[in-house]
Automatic annotation (TrEMBL):
UniProt source species: Nonomuraea thailandensis
ABC transporter domain residues: 5-242
Gene Ontology molecular-function annotations: ATP binding; ATP hydrolysis activity
Pfam families according to UniProt: ABC_tran
SUPFAM superfamilies: P-loop containing nucleoside triphosphate hydrolases (SSF52540)
InterPro entries, alphabetized: AAA+_ATPase, ABC_carbohydrate_import_ATPase, ABC_transporter-like_ATP-bd, P-loop_NTPase
UniProt keyword Secreted, yes or no: no
PROSITE patterns: ABC_TRANSPORTER_2
Keywords associated with the record: ATP-binding, Nucleotide-binding
Protein's name in the database: D-xylose transport system ATP-binding protein
UniProt entry tagged with the keyword NADP: no
Length: 254
């Protein structure tokens, strides 16, 4: 199976500090790939390189097997790569429909086509079985953390994304909301998207992922099938970069 998104040998430094070392990552259609690693391992930096927010120093990005060059979030969006950031995802002062169509509004002549945007937003949310949102004309500031994540994810679906990357979508959520978001993450993958989920929570990782990619100090320690590893092994990969036969040898080379 060809990965929908593949990162090959990416290096990234901020000034003299090298944050990513020859990082590889593959995400497959129909699967959830969990990207794990300790604080500062480089997860968000890797995602920002993929999303065109940071330029890479060297390495390649492949989309559906072909090399692509992503220089801006717009480039990423045009390819069908959508990234959901915990805090930056939505505008508080706009309602759900306005957020979902922000920057890509539908027009009817010179006017905004509110009816068709509303209809499509409604259809997308209900297609994802989202039922907890009272009104799609509700301001996002009045939504709970879980509902915000849901709207951000629905936005990715609305724009026919093929790859959705979620940076810690459940970090600030309670138990019930986390379960809801994870269920949605699973449904996204089941519709054929490649989903990358960054999470610190091993229970979440094992609940929804098909594969796990563990970053350790800016190096990809291992990429494994979730079914082939235990919680303890993944924790070891995160904290020391290796676990038995898995991971980095001598703390550096994979
Ligand atoms: N803009 C930047 N300038 C300089 N250093 C940065 C910058 N962004 C990140 N770093 C450094 O890069 C390293 C990786 O940070 P990154 O945010 O990617 O980690 P992370 O794996 O997402 O961590 P967390 O789990 O805490 O979110 C850290 O040491 C951080 O200090
Ligand atoms: Mg981060």
């Amino acid at each position: 199976m060809t990965p929908l998104l593949e990162v090959r040998g990416i290096d990234k430094s901020f000034g003299p500090v090298k944050v990513l070392h020859n990082v590889e990552l593959s995400a497959y259609p129909g699967e959830v790939t969990a990207l794990v690693g300790d604080n500062g391992a480089g997860k968000s930096t890797l995602v920002k390189c993929i999303g065109g927010i940071y330029p890479i120093d060297s390495g390649q990005l492949l989309f559906d097997g072909k090399e692509v060059h992503v220089h801006s979030p717009r480039d990423a969006g045009e390819l069908g790569i959508e990234i959901v950031y915990q805090d930056l995802a939505l505008c508080d002062n706009l309602d759900i429909v306005q957020n979902m169509f922000l920057g890509r509004e539908r027009k009817n002549g010179v006017f905004l086509d509110e009816d068709s945007m509303e209809e499509l937003a409604e259809k997308t949310l209900s297609g994802l079985s989202v039922r907890t949102v009272k009104s799609i004309r509700q301001q996002v500031s009045s939504l709970s953390g879980g509902q915000r994540q849901t709207v951000a994810i629905a936005k990715a679906v609305l724009w026919n994304s093929k790859v959705v990357i979620l940076d810690e979508p459940t970090a600030a959520l309670g138990v019930a909301q986390t379960a809801q978001v994870l269920e949605l993450v699973r449904r996204l993958a089941d519709t054929g998207l490649a989903v990358v989920l960054i999470s610190h929570n091993m229970n979440d990782v094992f609940a929804v992922s098909d594969r796990i990619a563990a970053l350790y100090l800016g190096r990809m320690a291992a990429q494994v099938k979730t079914a082939d590893v235990t919680h303890a092994q993944v924790v070891e990969l995160i904290t020391s970069g290796r676990s038995g036969e898995l991971g980095l040898k001598n703390g550096v080379t994979p």
